[in-house]
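Page header: ASSEMBLY MODEL / two components / 885 residues total.
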Amino acid sequence: MDNTTVDQGNYDPANPAPGVPAIEMRGISKTFTGVKALRDVRLKAWGGEIMALMGENGAGKSTLMKILSGAHRADAGGEILIDGNPIVIDGPQSARRAGIAIIYQELALAPNLTVAENIYLGDEISHAGGRIDRRAMETSCAPVLERLGAPFGPRALVGTLSIAEQQMVEIARALHGKSRILVLDEPTTALSSRETDRLFRLVKQLRTEGIAIIYISHRMAEVYELADRVTVLRDGSYAGDLGKRDINAEAIVRMMVGRDLSSFYTKEHDPDVVHPHLVLEVDGLTDGGRRVKPCSFSINRGEVLGLAGLVGAGRTELARLIFGADRATGGTIRLDGVPVTVSGPAEALERGIAYLTEDRKALGLFLDMSCGANINLGVIARDAKGGMALDLKRAAQRATDAFRSLRVRAASPLVTVGSLSGGNQQKILLARLLETGPKVLILDEPTRGVDVGAKSEIYRIIDELARKGIAILVISSELPEIVGICDRVLVMREGAIVGSVGGAGGEAITQQNIMAHAAGMEAA
Amino acid sequence: MQPIDSDVPTKAVPTAASGVSTSSAATAEAPFGGAGLSARQVRLRSTLQAAGMLPVLILLAIGFHLFGGHRFLTGQNLSIVAQQASINCVLAAGMTFVILTGGIDLSVGSILAASAMGALIASLWSIGGGFAVPVCLLIGLVIGGLNGGLIAYGKLPPFIVTLGSLTAVRGLARLMGADNTIFNPNLSYAWIGNDGLTIFPGVAIPWLAIIAVAVILVSWYVLKRTVLGVRIYAVGGNPAAARLSGINVPLILMFVYSLSGLLAGLGGVMSSARLYAANGLQLGQSYELDAIAAVILGGTSFVGGIGSIWGTLIGALIIAVLSNGLILLGVSDIWQFIVKGLVIIGAVALDRFRQQGGART
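Prediction written out in full:
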């Protein structure tokens, strides 16, 4: 970049650029409907630095970033300084002029346009008379794409690119617009591990180019790898900063939740291995080899079985076959020893198999409906009077009970699910499944997009359910979670179960042993 | 709009509620900071949303009364308004079910015509007119069912399917009467369109209005108090999640289009009862647009999942009040169209603006 404040040649990540911060926010407050979302928050980021912004869901990260991007206006009294000069951000345009670019989880690209057209969206180059000049757009954005090492050209149609590549287009658009402050909001949520690595290399490269990067993430591993400094928000307030050398999980978590997490994972259940009772037995289940090769395994009563593997290994697809969401072409399923057919989700639920989807917003919840309605959806037919009329009293009771037992934090079961934080949404979805009284519970990424506090509560709930004798299958991409809560772990690769750790006489459940199977190496 | 963003103020009160292994029962009573709204606020908001357009309706009625020579708010005129609103109300009730699932039914006007033709033909049968009403309802139900089958099981877009049947069924209606008006001066069910229930001497409520109110009440019950109703909202809110929750989505779609057809058939009974006649070409022309307008005015979301039957009732009344009031004011037919169209757009724009304002302040 041409006008950075950092001397790129002498960049030293251990000692991030001194002097004036590229962006500084001071005394920022924001009030919504009488509720203080942000209280006197401050934040600094220097050019050539990756600053990780952390906090639980609801801590105010997104609100703060929306103020930075001009989507919200801060209350009077705060200050935003670029290179030490106070500026006013009163809309997306002024944020962009100030060199601020934000890349949200939900990418804002037009899939039906080319890369070049997207980069120039709203700022198209045209001939005299308004005819669009595609060639000029394509040639002038080529250098940026090259600098980012993009594996696609300016003429590629954005809709045909992977999520990771689309992210690259967004970054290219930001750099092309001469942005010097880049905010990445949980950029790795939808990426595979290889794509994540590539993104990390890119982010580090941008750091050496002197760009100030604000990186929002829930994943501790990413923060270790990338961050030069961590700023933590808690309940809408500034909770503190940690320098590179002080970054550790415990310190961050303590700042985020304001207390120690003595036992993060809960594993008090103890499956009866002496008198095993196999609740679910899957034998040779397959979709014909497209995504899932014949898979066989079983789950004991009260057992938490982990299903690990890289993204795309076929774990979700296998779960959907068991649940009947997709059609199996071969294999058998036995429940309590009895062979059953599962022709669809309705039948699966009736037989006692429940599936928590990995994408709760798109495939799980009814965001406009109340928490109570969401919780009761699976059992209203069972509860109905005369097979038809809703039992409102019973439904209200179920909702209240679920709120209490799962510790849902919302004003009442009448509020819409869409207004809750990720962790509470997940509890609502889980409550719906539990109301149906499942024997087998399949949890697909149960803590995705859930803050630290709620994560720990979900682990406690899983443990309690196992103690009640439910057979639980946990699909997760977070290895510490798998290691922390599972009794036994199956590893999938390329649609097949390639290994098993834990259980009687098995290898120890460690991240190394699981990764060895997942990546296709023999365990040492 | 309620912000869907998860990072809007939660203020989760970590001390009381999020203890990892302590304080199990304290949560429900804990003082919640601001996760969403209080129960009372939620109830208030949903009441306000249902009331939505009620102020517009009242203002229109008062305005027409004041500027229309004090002739609008009279018993006789209100009875006329109720009759005018009733057929649209019945069609719009069916349309509400359809739009709640995220669909649309463009064919109701044509179905109304075809079933009215069927009713008139059956009323002239030598065995007597007793079959007229059942035949009429059956025609509506069957055509609605065909729409539903193509949409639910054929996976065709509702707009396309019902656009097709809008045209084809209109042709069918003309075919049934050989493109002539069928007339029956001794129509057995003409009382439906012309009589009323006398509540005390001199004051009668038109049967048309009673039917419309009954349809609204039954619709309310089905939507808000039955399993089916919850599932209709669920399918409209998130079809993928509905399927994974074990809901038979095609069956729900089949139901709403069949119901819409059935209610269009009922509309056929009502309009032919008023006229003692049916004409395949003219009857029910562009009724679907009035029905859709009533649903939209009532605040039902076009993408599905949000809305109420009370809103639809108010919407239908607004349209009827507008037509009636503009006639009272002596506005020409041409200008009536223009004014009605602009009021529909304006009212909905106002509503959107009001709701956004509500979320901000």
